[in-house]
Every structure is written in C-alpha cells, then in structure tokens.
Design goal:
- This protein is mostly helical.
- 49% of the residues lie in helices and 2% in strands.
- It has eight helices and two strands, in the order ααααααααββ.
- It starts with a helix and ends with a strand.
- The relative contact order is 0.12.
C-alpha cells in the first residue's frame, strides 16, 4: 500500500470516527459489527501508534459504552446469565477488555477513575496457571489459560494502570 493510500485510509477512518454514525454505532453495540465497528477502527489507529488521532467524542462514547453495555461478570455457566442478556453481545471477553483498556489509556483516559471495575474484573477470572481464557468452558473443565486471552489484559495492567491496589502473589505467581 502506498503512503498516499495509507494516509487516505487513516484520514477516512478518523473522519468516520468523528461522525455521529460512529457514536451511534457504539451506542448500539460497542464491539459489533466485528472488524468494521468503531471499536476496530480505534484499535487499528492505536496499533499504528496513532491513538492521538482518535476524536475525543468517540473516546467518551466508548468509555460510556464499555461501562454500561457489558455485564460486570464473565458467566461461565448459562444459568449465570441474567434474564434477557445476549451472551454474544453483552459479555466482555478478557482479550477485548485488555485491548480496549490499552486503546482508551493511549487516548488519555484514566482507567482507574473512569472504569475502576475493570482491573478487579480481570483479577477475578485469573485461572490457577496465572492466565485468563475467553472460553468460558475453561473455567469448568481444563482450568487452563489461553495466551491470546491473557496477553492483552496483562499488557493493560502492566502499561495502563496505576500500581496494583494490593501486591499479592498467588500459588501460580504474580496476579494480573
């Protein structure tokens, strides 16, 4: 892809994120449609080192959506879902949480102030081997973490949050 093409693609993404359509999409569902929603465009800019280009109104919309759209639990059994909850759209997985935490932090969001429940949420679901798993079945069968599910939250905790509220070691080693 040429530099001109790349600049045009970035400009188009920034223009979209600055639009009412982007804020509306986040209000409808912060994550979906997968690969094309503001979530993914924000993540792309962050991955390119361009988080500074993400418009503040869409950042604020994402903070509000993450705080209100998702359950504050990771149900591992179907009976843990509240009535009317869509398990595919209202349950936040660990890797998505860790990724968006990093995006929002890069945009200047103080996560410990704006989304104070997220770090304890990650700690709560740490498996005996020290990691996390976005496959809820792992919490009732294998108790094995996934590298893909663990790395974004670990990066978020290490890079984006103030010092842990309690320095503790589990039998598996340091906690997230």
């Amino acid at each position: 892809m040429s530099d001109r093409c790349s600049r045009e693609a970035v400009a188009e993404t920034v223009a979209y994120l600055a639009s009412p359509a982007a804020v509306g999409s986040i209000a409808a569902d912060p994550y979906w449609p997968k690969w094309d929603s503001p979530w993914w465009r924000m993540t792309l800019l962050w991955e390119l080192g361009l988080a500074r280009l993400i418009p503040p109104p869409v950042v604020e919309a994402m903070v509000n959506a993450v705080d209100t759209h998702y359950l504050r639990l990771f149900p591992v059994r179907e009976e843990e879902l509240p009535p009317g909850c869509d398990p595919h759209r209202q349950v936040l997985c660990h890797c998505a949480a860790g990724t968006m935490m990093q995006v929002l932090y890069a945009c200047g969001v103080d996560l410990d102030v704006r989304l104070p429940w997220m770090r304890p949420w990650l700690h709560q679901y740490q498996l005996p081997d020290g990691g996390l798993n976005c496959d809820e079945g792992a919490y009732v069968t294998s108790l094995k973490s996934s590298t893909v599910s663990t790395l974004p939250p670990l990066e978020a905790v290490l890079r984006c949050l103030r010092a842990p509220t309690a320095s503790r070691l589990s039998h598996a080693g340091p906690t997230l």
